[in-house]
Amino acid sequence: MCLLKDAFDFDGPSEIAALIQAEAVEAALALHLYRGGRLLRGHGIPFGIIFGGTDLNEDVNQGEKNQVMGKVLEEARFAVAFTESMKETARLQWPHAKAKIYVQSQGIATAPNTAFNWDAFLQRADIQQSTDNLHVFLLISGLRQVKDPLYLVDAFAEWHQEEPNVYMVIVGPEVDPVFTREVKAKVKRATGVRLIPEMPQDDLHALVKKCFALVNSSVSEGMSAAILEAMDLEVPVLARNIPGNAAVVTHEVTGLLFSDPQEFVQLAKRLVSDPALEKELVANGRQYVRMYHSWRVERDTYQHLVRTLEGSSED
Q1: b/e per residue 20-58 (b: at least 16 CB within 10 A)
Q2: Residue 233 near residue 205, CB atoms below 8 Å
Q3: What is the pLDDT of residues 237-257, one digit of tens each?
Q4: How far is the C-alpha of 138 from the C-alpha of 182, rounded, in Å?
Q5: CA proximity to 251, closest of 233, 270, 232
Q6: Neighbours of 132 (CB within 10 A)
């Protein structure tokens, strides 16, 4: 049996200790070296770690968190990085752990809800445009600062005033209550920008497929599943040019990378007016995901690693 728990639901290791005892937990796998890993130290059960992104891009620069993460790696039986560059970052920070760090990219499988009602969604989002000429840019983002969902809002609102058939829709959970209030207030004042609560995954996949493009404006990413899912669903991607995004998006090959809001609008306009470019990005993106992000390969890797938590690494 496998228990799935959110690290945010636990105030500290004592609550994890109670869970381990109550559920007779024999091993654990944590996502995020600091947020999840620190909760697993000292309980006497074997565990592995999957780097998240902000642990290596942000937390690593904070002395106390860096020390805690180093100690977590001392106890962990293995750690998984999504990319070679993430592995290298971890290796340089914690040389003692280099032998236990593996690279496994995220595996992607999409399953859009075939009963998803696009017209009903547009009505709910207060988008009253003819679908024939409508271009919806979708930003999937938890409402927290590292995802920077407001980065493009002003530039997009200005573009919408020029071209009323373009919209940006932000979809995601309200992770940070204070920042969520800021996002809601900003979006309320912005023309052509809509904010929608999080959705079931099959509906979200169906929504991605209906939209013109997927947008990522994060300050930091490990490996964006939303980008890879959009590629799998044959939807073009425009992503902020940060290391985590550039690791999966090759500019003008599998997607478009922008460095500021003005460049985003410039590239978005180009994509709208150039169907041949859209077709090329979509074809290349899907081929890339099929080649490098197989869910079957990911499954096999984790099956092998989890067996090391059972005390045997044999197949």
Answers
A1: beeeebeebbbbbbbbbbbbbeebeebbbbbbbbbbbbe
A2: yes
A3: 999 999 999 999 999 999 999
A4: 19
A5: 270
A6: 6
Mean pLDDT of the chain: 94
Identity at 127, one-letter amino acid code: I
DSSP 187: H
| Residue 221 structure tokens | 């990413």
Instruction: Over range 49-58, report the average pLDDT.
Output: 91
Least Cα distance to 141 among 246, 250, 227, 262 occurs for 227
Q: What is the pLDDT of residues 106-152, one digit of tens each?
A: 999 999 999 999 999 999 999 977 766 899 999 999 999 999 999 99
Q: What angle do CA 153, 149, 140 make, to 5 degrees?
A: 115
Q: Considering the chain, what percentage of its residues have pLDDT values greater than 70?
A: 97
The separation between the first and the last C-alpha atoms of the chain, rounded to the nearest angstrom, is 19
Whether residue 27 has pLDDT greater than 90: yes
> DSSP string spanning 31-69?
ESTTTTGGGTTTSS--EEEE--SHHHHTGGGSHHHHHHH
Task: Output DSSP code: residue 193.
Answer: E
Structure tokens at 25: 């937990």
Q: Structure pTM?
A: 0.87
